[in-house]
């Protein structure tokens, strides 16, 4: 039979103390942050470990470090306090006429190209609903849906989506962007393998677009020579305009920069350049009425 512990034995002072100790690497500093005597803090931590049946902290003369069980406990504590903050925020909003909250996480492509107009329409029709929108990497969005941190996600369909309900959203046309004097700028269209002989400008590690292009390079038995990596599509455009390399971007997100920076757009011939975006949610976590309304708006926009 699975052993459990009594949650009623924990108070928020102890949980905040544990988080403070984990973050500072010191029981003394953690106790000071929580305004507790060192002896009282040590006793609370020992009682916490006894109640969980696990050693959460490795203690040494150099300080303390989290054990594997401690890392797990810290993740749950952080989520608990995030939930309490949302609880407080939503109740406060409710008193001011807000009747619903939706946590929407989206990747950069969808956030830049599609969601502004969709959300403008949705919020114009539903002024009593607040949408908490976060830009995140596609892989992080999928994990947030599984963990219940996000209600709805908009992300790339090449992301592992096991256990999630997935609906079509939009299709990105990926193109190559280059400086006007770059050798590729003379071409009307290009295949990705041809591009691989040149330097690239790309997004930082963890981006689903970077993962996609890197995987396609491997399939061509080639390697992407990444000269510069940045955090946004705008930054990519400026680096390309500076002649630091070519980049693969969704056409819709770079239209305004193409004219302003005098860049050249070269369509990709490869089939994977028609990149699909999807809307996803966790079927094991029931969507609120507000989230259901937003899902309807997102799927309607994809029709």
Write structural notes for this entry.
The chain has 303 residues and is an alpha/beta fold. It folds into 3 domains: 77 residues, Winged helix-like DNA-binding domain superfamily/Winged helix DNA-binding domain (Arc Repressor Mutant, subunit A); 99 residues, D-Maltodextrin-Binding Protein, domain 2, CATH 3.40.190; 102 residues, Periplasmic binding protein-like II (D-Maltodextrin-Binding Protein, domain 2, 3-Layer(aba) Sandwich). The protein is built from 12 helices and 11 strands. Strands 3, 4, 5, 6, 9, 10 and 11 form a 7-stranded mixed β-sheet that branches. A two-stranded antiparallel ribbon has the order 1-2. Strands 7-8 form a two-stranded parallel ribbon. It is globular, with a radius of gyration of 24 Å. The mean pLDDT is 88.
């Amino acid at each position: 039979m699975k052993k459990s512990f009594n949650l009623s034995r924990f108070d928020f002072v102890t949980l905040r103390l544990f988080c403070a100790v984990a973050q500072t690497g010191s029981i003394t500093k953690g106790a000071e942050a929580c305004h507790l005597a060192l002896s009282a803090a040590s006793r609370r931590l020992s009682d916490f470990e006894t109640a969980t049946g696990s050693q959460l902290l490795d203690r040494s003369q150099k300080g303390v470090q989290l054990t594997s069980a401690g890392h797990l406990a810290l993740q749950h504590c952080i989520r608990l306090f995030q939930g309490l903050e949302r609880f407080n925020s939503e109740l406060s909003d409710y008193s001011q006429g807000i009747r619903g909250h939706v946590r929407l996480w989206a990747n950069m492509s969808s956030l830049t190209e599609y969601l502004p107009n969709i959300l403008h329409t949705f919020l114009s029709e539903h002024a009593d609903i607040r949408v908490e929108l976060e830009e995140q990497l596609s892989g992080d969005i999928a994990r947030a849906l599984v963990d219940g941190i996000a209600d709805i996600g908009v992300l790339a369909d090449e992301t592992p989506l096991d256990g999630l309900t997935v609906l079509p959203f939009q299709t990105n046309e990926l193109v190559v962007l280059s400086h006007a004097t770059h050798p590729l700028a003379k071409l009307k269209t290009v295949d990705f393998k041809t591009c691989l002989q040149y330097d690239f400008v790309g997004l930082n590690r963890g981006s689903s677009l970077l993962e996609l292009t890197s995987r396609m390079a491997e399939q061509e038995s080639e390697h992407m020579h990444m000269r510069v990596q940045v955090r946004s599509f705008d930054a990519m455009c400026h680096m390309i305009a500076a002649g630091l390399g070519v980049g693969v971007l969704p056409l819709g997100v770079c239209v305004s920069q193409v004219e302003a920076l005098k860049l050249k757009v070269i369509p990709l011939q490869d089939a994977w350049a028609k990149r699909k975006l999807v809307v996803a949610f966790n079927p094991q976590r029931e969507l609120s009425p507000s989230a259901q309304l937003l899902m309807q708006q997102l799927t309607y926009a994809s029709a």
